[in-house]
Specification:
Blueprint: E1 2-7, E2 20-23, E3 27-31, H1 40-44, E4 48-50, H2 60-69, E5 77-81, H3 83-92, E6 113-117, E7 123-126, E8 129-135, E9 143-148, E10 153-156, H4 164-172, E11 176-182, H5 190-196, H6 201-211, E12 219-222, H7 229-239, E13 244-246, E14 252-254
Parallel strand pairs: 3-4, 4-5, 5-6, 10-11, 11-12, 12-13
Antiparallel strand pairs: 1-2, 1-14, 2-3, 7-8, 8-9, 9-10
The protein binds zinc ion (2 copies).
Length: 255
């Protein structure tokens, strides 16, 4: 499985893009960054976009993707999310005020985007991969994704704070090659992490100790807030966990 990291930061700043992962050239896992990091040709190859939750840093790339691919695709791009997430995008974003409703453009019969709701816990076949959405601990309806092909599985937490379910899934998963997990704030901002539904390095450490996960699987940290990057990296190093790595923006991983 090929995963190109278009963005993996917890906010936007120079050299820091918000979360968007292109899987096998056709499937987006979150849509925080799409158009700012892909050629127009590559954008037109996307067939499916899975959205973890409705926060802007995970959806904003959809807006310009829709704009760029009009007239360049044969089938609508499937935008897949929980029903309340799709409802929020429809009501608050592509509502013909903030941005056009691209499920009706250029026509309702042949639109650019099509909303496709999914349910958590159900295994789906999307773009040749098996995908299951897993509920996360975040202030809005949010899921992470377990994505598998015949050889490997990756687990993407999207945005979450401490979460037993996440590690339970990691333990059960076959051929698990990578876990991509949120660590947004330094240890010092523990309370802010709690109220906003994100991990600190120390909270991650506690969760991992409880979960007793095998240390063979690399854990890639994503969603670091750029303003606290140095502190988060320092706190992560202090954990002394060899399998904890930092996900690199712009890099293509093969799992
Ligand atoms: Zn969020
Ligand atoms: Zn986020």
């Amino acid at each position: 499985m090929k995963v190109k990291v278009l963005g993996c930061s917890g906010s936007e700043a120079i050299g820091h893009n918000t979360p968007g992962f292109l899987v096998n050239d056709v499937l987006m896992m979150d849509a925080g960054t799409i158009t700012a990091a892909l050629s127009l040709g590559a954008q037109a190859k996307i067939t499916d976009v899975m959205i973890s939750h409705p926060h802007l840093d995970h959806i904003k790339g959809l807006l310009f993707l829709a704009d760029n691919i009009i007239g360049r695709i044969r089938r609508p791009v499937a935008v897949r999310a929980l029903p309340p997430v799709l409802a929020a995008i429809k009501k608050h974003l592509m509502n013909n005020i903030i941005w056009p409703d691209f499920t009706k453009i250029p026509s309702a019969q042949r639109p650019v985007l099509a909303y496709k709701p999914f349910r958590a816990g159900v295994t789906m076949n999307i773009a040749g991969l098996r995908v299951r959405a897993i509920p996360m601990n975040h202030p809005v309806p949010a899921v992470g994704f377990l994505v598998s092909d015949s050889r490997s599985t990756i687990l993407y937490s999207a945005d979450t704070g401490p979460n037993e379910r996440l590690w339970g899934e990691a333990k059960k998963a076959r051929n698990l090659k990578a876990i991509i997990v949120d660590t947004s704030f330094p240890d010092k901002l523990d309370e802010l992490a709690d109220v906003s539904g994100h991990f600190t390095p120390q909270q991650l450490h506690k969760d991992l100790e409880k979960a007793k996960l095998s240390s063979d699987v690399p854990i890639y940290i994503y969603h670091i807030k750029p303003a606290y990057e140095a502190k988060v990296l320092r706190d992560l190093r202090a954990l002394g966990r060899k399998n904890v790595k930092i996900l690199q923006e712009g890099k293509t991983y093969t799992f």
